[in-house]
Design goal:
The protein is mostly beta strands. The protein has one domain (20-41, 54-246). The chain is built from two helices and 16 strands. Mean pLDDT is 88; it is low at 1-11.
Length: 254
């Protein structure tokens, strides 16, 4: 899940989970990739008439990784995503973390998901989802209490599985647009999402030349503008005009 689609109310920005690259390229083994979360700040002119300055302030990160695993005696993918955010104006703020772990069969069928929201006081909420073909069985743990629920998607669960359907294979676009669904672990609702192949970019990231292809991912109306270089390395994600995620250094190898 790309954003913690929950409207968790904290005095800090909402955590955003990694996994944008996997929406575009599908699942394959990948070590953890971390992008830092920045916001633009603007300092006001002082009494001596100094000009307004713009600078970035780090307020968290997102990450994603894909590993091989075994479930029900079969090889599956284990997708792990995390997002962490803190109040950028409070150095002492420990922040809030959201995590997702998802087990996916080789045919793309999502088998199991576990979402967690962690605050400085501990785990605030856990949602486990078990996917069939027509239903999703949920177990929700919050404040020491456990309850269950069942979702009945109108058209079955295929739209959840389309999340990791590759749009680009061996450097070729095989799916210019796609629609998929994501479970919102806060509302327990089904969120409509989409991904679209954008255009080419050729400019600078981290003051270094960078070029590749952009993609637009929309999660429940929230847009993410994603930059992959020509070797399909994820470099940057624009969230709003003032907030973005970025790698700490450009990759040097294929």
């Amino acid at each position: 899940m790309l954003a913690l689609l929950a409207s968790v109310i904290f005095a800090r920005p909402e955590p955003v989970l990694g996994g944008q690259k996997q929406i575009i390229l599908g699942l394959e083994a990948a070590p953890p990739l971390v992008l830092s979360y920045f916001t633009w700040r603007r300092s006001k002119p002082n009494e001596f008439g100094s000009s307004t300055n713009e600078y970035t302030q780090r307020m968290g990160y997102l990450s994603a990784a894909v590993k091989s695993d075994v479930m029900n005696n079969s090889r599956v993918w284990r997708f792990e995503a995390e997002g962490h955010t803190k109040d950028p104006l409070k150095e002492s703020d420990l922040g809030v973390a959201a995590t997702e772990t998802t087990w996916v069969a080789k045919d793309g069928h999502i088998l199991r998901q576990v979402f967690e929201v962690q605050t400085p006081k501990g785990v605030a909420r856990t949602v486990e989802a078990i996917y069939g073909t027509k239903t999703v069985e949920l177990t929700i743990t919050e404040n020491g209490q456990e309850r269950t629920a069942t979702l009945y998607p109108t058209e079955g669960c295929q739209s959840f599985f389309d999340r990791f359907k590759p749009m680009v294979v061996d450097g070729k676009v095989v799916l210019k647009d796609k629609k998929f669904s994501i479970l919102d672990p806060q509302t327990l609702g089904i969120v409509s999402c989409s991904a679209t192949v954008g255009g080419r970019f050729n400019g600078k990231i981290l003051l270094e030349p960078a070029k590749g292809t952009t993609y637009d991912i929309t999660l429940g109306g929230k847009r993410q503008h994603v930059y992959l270089d020509e070797r399909n390395h994820l470099l940057q994600i624009d969230i709003t005009e003032d907030t973005f995620f970025q790698v700490d250094a450009l990759p040097t190898e294929g």
